[in-house]
Structures are given as structure tokens and as C-alpha cells.
From TrEMBL:
Family named by the database record: Belongs to the trehalose phosphatase family.
UniProt KW keywords: Hydrolase, Stress response
Gene3D superfamilies xrefs: HAD superfamily/HAD-like, Trehalose-6-phosphate phosphatase related protein, domain 2
A UniProt-annotated Pfam family: Trehalose_PPase
Keyword Hydrolase listed: yes
A biological process from GO: trehalose biosynthetic process
Source organism (scientific name): Lupinus luteus
Protein name: Trehalose 6-phosphate phosphatase
Task of the protein: Removes the phosphate from trehalose 6-phosphate to produce free trehalose. Trehalose accumulation in plant may improve abiotic stress tolerance.
Protein EC: 3.1.3.12
């Protein structure tokens, strides 16, 4: 497809940018590429956050994703789990089928971070990646184009991963940066090193909301607000479950005054995001296009993730009719992923990576 002009950024030189714009954005003065999004309809849709039913839905969903809740459910419904694992079998058990499906095609890897490459921990600042996982991902990137697609801001996840040869899509894909050196998989050798930020004009607004959320939730013991640059995350993990509804109400009350922002629910977290049509699935598609695989039938994307936000990427693969999604979960949950990997995730994921590397060599 025809490449569009891009705007070069020289910030954060240690993580250089090497992706080219695949969809026509509206460029503005300055360093960033900006995304044009509809306003009026989004404002009306955002009024949903005022509903009590919406809050209850978020809280119930977070309870359902709790491991302790899942264990209780599983003990009462083993048949349900058996049915689920038949529909989403282990990627390790089905490895030969994955190899057959990817035969003669370029594998492209997309990896969530928290709960996939690192364990889920109470303190989000301590979600460290193991040395063995880092080494394995580095080897993976030498064979396949590899991207980290995460809700974290790029700076935080890069400090955890510390691999300059990867693509990074932070804030659920609203901040995309390429490897720090010429990447052999990028078919457009002349592409400039760029930064893609589809909602850059909302950065001051998100920073303002972050401060308000910190102030509003400080009375709730265990509540933690994380600034992920293009989104603000309110963590429920260390909050007494009886206080979850109260905390959700606090978050909702802040968002009432910001129609350009919306709330989404993840694994024991509520996240404030811009009201634009952008998510991890869009980020996956953007990266494939940037790598030159927009209309290629010879590409095989693999996306591995554990959270509700990863479902957008799983669905995108189904829409494309290419590749497969792998859900990291020990417990049955609704998913569009084809396969699963059980927790603890590190051993199973490293094993899958090693098999892919061995087959490729």
C-alpha cells in the first residue's frame, strides 16, 4: 500500500523508532503523528459510565477473573473446564498443527507483558522479567519480528524488558516505537525512524485526570493509580474486595467531566483511555502493515496474552483469517483465542518459544 509521510521524533534516543504510518493520519505541527477521531457520537457513548449497572458489570467481571474465585468455580464445574480446554487446547500439545499452519510463512510474534512475559504481582512496579525469559525473547527476535503490546507506557515496559531489538506498542497501542537499529524484517528499508501516537493531543488531559484519580482514590486502602502516559490505570489488586464497588464509583465520578476519555476494565484494573477507535488489535494491524505484510498471504501472526484487553488482538486475527491467538490462563474464561497455555506461564511460554526457535533453525 502507499506509504504516508511521517513526522520524525528525536526524543528518547535509546529506543529509536522504525515504523511507518499505514493509515493516513492528520499531521500537526511538532513531532508527533495525530489521529483524527469522531467526537459527538463518542461523547454520547461515554455517558454509559454514569450507569450503576456499568459499575456492577466491571466489578463482577473482575471478581470472575480472580484466581481464588476461579478455583472455587472450577471445583464445582470440572466438566465446564474440560469442555473449555477442548475448545482452547494447549499450544504445546497442538504444536505440530501450529507448525503445519505456519509452513512457508513468515511468523510475526506479538506478546503481552504482564501475566505473559512476567508474573502478575501486587505491586505493578515490581513485575520483573526473568533473565531466562529475556534471553529467550532476545533469541526469538533474531528469528521473527517481535513486538511487545502492553497497557503499560513504553518507558516502563522497556525498563523491564531491556531489549532494543523489539517493537514496542505501549498504552494499548497508542504509543508505538520500533527497534533501535535497522531491522532486517522491515521490508521498507528507506522508512524513517518515527513515533506513532494517535492521541497525542490528549496527553495533557490524561495527565490531569491521573492527578485527580490519585487525589480521589487516596482514601481507599490499597488503591494504586498508575500513569501509563496515554492511559491511567487504577489497580484493585490490593484493595479489599468489599471496597471494589466504592472504588469504581470514585473512578467513575472523575470521568464524568471528561467526555474525551472512557473507562475500560481489565484484570483487577480500571483504565482511563482516549475515546478513539484504537486498541491492541489496531496496534497489531498497524505493525503488520508497517512491516510490509498488510496484504500478504505469506504471514503468520501469533499473539500471546492473558488479559481481557488482549481479546481485541485475538479478534483481529480472526478477522484477518491469519495466524492464531494464545490465551495464558489456568482457568476457563470467554476468549477468542485458538489455544491456551497454563500458568505458571514462564515455563510453558519459554517451552513454546524454544520449540518455535528449534523448528525455525
Amino acid at each position: 500500500m502507499t506509504q504516508q509521510n511521517v513526522v520524525v521524533s528525536d526524543t528518547k534516543p535509546r529506543i529509536k523508532r522504525a515504523v511507518s504510518v499505514a493509515q493516513k493520519p492528520v499531521t500537526v505541527p511538532g513531532r508527533y503523528i495525530q489521529y483524527s477521531y469522531p467526537r459527538s457520537r463518542r461523547v454520547l457513548k461515554n455517558l454509559e459510565i454514569n450507569g450503576e449497572q456499568r459499575i456492577n458489570s466491571w466489578v463482577d467481571s473482575m471478581r470472575a477473573s480472580s484466581p481464588t474465585h476461579a478455583k472455587s468455580t472450577l471445583s464445582l464445574a470440572e466438566e465446564q473446564y474440560t469442555s473449555w480446554i477442548l475448545r482452547h487446547p494447549s499450544a504445546l500439545d497442538m504444536f505440530e498443527q501450529i507448525v503445519d499452519a505456519s509452513q512457508g510463512k513468515q511468523i510475526v510474534m506479538f506478546l503481552d507483558y504482564d501475566g505473559t512475559l512476567s508474573p502478575i504481582v501486587n505491586d505493578p512496579d515490581c513485575a520483573y522479567m526473568s533473565d531466562s525469559m529475556r534471553k529467550t525473547v532476545r533469541n526469538l527476535a533474531r528469528c521473527f519480528p517481535t513486538s511487545i503490546v502492553t497497557g503499560r507506557c513504553i518507558e516502563k515496559v522497556y525498563n523491564f524488558v531491556q531489549l532494543a531489538e523489539l517493537y514496542y506498542a505501549g498504552s494499548h497501542g497508542m504509543d508505538i516505537k520500533g527497534p533501535s537499529k535497522s531491522f532486517k524484517f522491515n521490508k521498507d528499508k528507506k522508512s524513517e525512524e518515527v513515533l506513532f501516537q494517535p492521541a497525542s493531543e490528549l496527553l495533557p488531559l490524561i495527565a490531569e485526570v491521573y492527578q485527580e484519580l490519585v487525589e480521589k482514590t487516596k482514601s481507599t486502602v490499597g488503591a494504586r493509580v498508575e500513569n501509563n502516559k496515554f492511559c491511567a490505570s487504577v489497580h484493585f489488586r490490593c484493595v479489599d474486595e468489599k471496597k471494589w464497588s466504592e472504588l469504581a464509583q470514585q473512578v467513575r465520578s472523575v470521568l464524568k467531566e471528561y467526555p474525551k476519555l472512557r473507562l475500560t476494565q481489565g484484570r483487577k484494573v480500571l483504565e482511563v483511555r482516549p475515546t478513539i477507535k484504537w486498541d491492541k488489535g489496531k496496534a497489531l494491524e498497524f505493525l503488520l502493515q508497517s512491516l510490509g505484510f498488510a496484504n500478504s498471504s505469506d504471514v503468520f501472526p501469533i499473539y500471546i496474552g492473558d488479559d481481557k484487553t488482549d481479546e481485541d488482538a485475538f479478534k483481529k486475527l480472526i478477522d484477518r483469517g491469519q495466524g492464531l491467538g494464545i490465551l495464558v490462563s489456568k482457568f476457563p474464561k470467554e476468549t477468542s483465542a485458538s489455544y491456551s497455555l497454563q500458568e505458571p506461564n514462564e515455563a510453558s511460554i519459554i517451552s513454546l518459544f524454544h520449540r518455535l526457535l528449534h523448528h525455525h533453525s
